[in-house]
Amino acid sequence: MSVAFRREGDDEHLEPKFEIPIPPGPNLVTARGKALIDAKVVELEVRLAEPLEEPVLNAAKRDLRYWQTRQVTAEVQPEPDGSVIAFGTRVTFLLNGKERVLGLVGDDEADPAAGLIAFSAPLARALMGAEEGELLPFNGREDAIEVLAIDSL
């Protein structure tokens, strides 16, 4: 019999659902980031208490596993003093002649549209450890970044 006529069920033709990938490295978070993770876990636990269709239920369970892992592995970092660019600081700088303001936060808290980038991003790594007035290399240019100001988030 041809394989075309053999069908075990609809599930065999669906795309497999994989776990949400955990970013490599430590799970550094700000106090705000930890609160966001905690709120996401509570939100998903409440959602799982509701009657849900199987695909929605499975997706919510997968999301909950991810956020519970992030909750357990979260390492809340102390608030920086603002003397150098570090995790949890907001930095004002010139990049290619344009002034930008970015906060350096954890992977799950990052929101580039809101001016928050992950500490693991290439731009964040280029900024880390710098002081006000310093010129930094980036994208092959030795003086691509000029640090204007450093504040706590």
UniProtKB/TrEMBL annotation:
A molecular function (GO) term: translation elongation factor activity
Sequence intervals crossing the membrane: none
Pfam families tied to this protein: GreA_GreB
Residues in coiled coil: none
Keywords (A to Z) from UniProt: Elongation factor, Protein biosynthesis
Domain Transcription elongation factor GreA/GreB C-terminal: 83-150
Keyword Translocase: no
Taxonomic superkingdom: Bacteria
Name under which the protein is recorded: GreA/GreB family elongation factor
Organism: Novosphingobium album (ex Hu et al. 2023)
